[in-house]
Amino acid sequence: MDLIRLRIAPYLILAGLLVALGHAQAPSSPNPAASSGSSNFAPAEKASAETDRVILKVGDVQVTKSEFESGLPQIEPEADPDAEGKSRRKLGDDFASVLMLSQQALASHLDSSPQVSRQLAVARMQVLSDAEFASLMHQADPTTEEISKYYSDHLSEYDQVHIRRLFIWKRPGNSETGPVLSSQAAHARAGELRQAMAAGTSEKKLSQDLIKSGEGMLDAEPLTFSRGGLSPELGKVAFGLKESEWSEVQETPAAFLFIQLVKRDRRQLGQVSSSIEKDLQAQKLEALLDDMKKKAGIWLDEQYFGAAVAPAPGAQRRGSDPPSQLQKSEKKGESDNEYETQK
Fold first, then answer.
1. pLDDT classification of 133: cutoffs 50, 70, 90
2. Helices marked H in the chain — which ranges?
3. Quick one: which of 60, 75, 185, 299 has the most CB atoms within 10 Å?
């Protein structure tokens, strides 16, 4: 659907204007019922019946303020109809130019050419498709009760941990040369830092001293991670610790990594309701679309289109948090600059 939208976007404006102007300019039909629509832009003789004032004219076609402002996003998506001075004048000139060109296209019977006819047909199909999709989106809106039930049924998914990381570089200053720190020495240094924290030394001071000494890096403030925000290995350790407990979780070529569970809690319904709403709506919308596809009897020639691709396992599961800072740090440690960037 997105691909079709991208391809026909340049024709949407012309399509809508050609249809509207066609009805505005075409001679009266002996059979009004045969008309496929009505004009969005009123002919001059009907302007007095409009409740909004006319602000733009091109030949016999005139545009009211409300029509201009409602049609403007199709011509200038980022335009501000409230802009003053030259900006608003430029928008008016652009709008008038589109009307003028579409009028000339009708006068030249370009709307009857095979190419433009196809473009108009695709544009109409896309507009109708978007309208039906919007209707389905509304039908798929979850209720407050559904959101609350989903939260209650998936409480563990909203658990989160607040952890502090401690990196001890294997080489002083994280340099490429020099003696490699042993595991025993790294654990001893980590123990000294933990004792200092327990004795009341602020984590901020210890963090600053550690960086200055070139021995490692300590988070002055805890970092917060939800389930799925950590790699399986780190998540298992973090969510398995008791509050205030430390554990070594990783050894890389550049450093030893220790983490402390500072606090464990759970995001409340009010914090995640919007996310749950989007997830449930996506699930319901997918079900509605699948049902429509089955009833529509869709068939694709696999010799031309290729075989259907099965969705990846878990692709429709509730989205987890973006890659976490700790996940990104797992492969870090090659240089002091990389760790400093994470600070």
1. very high
2. 2-25, 65-75, 85-107, 114-139, 144-153, 183-198, 203-213, 232-240, 269-296, 302-305, 325-330, 336-342
3. 75
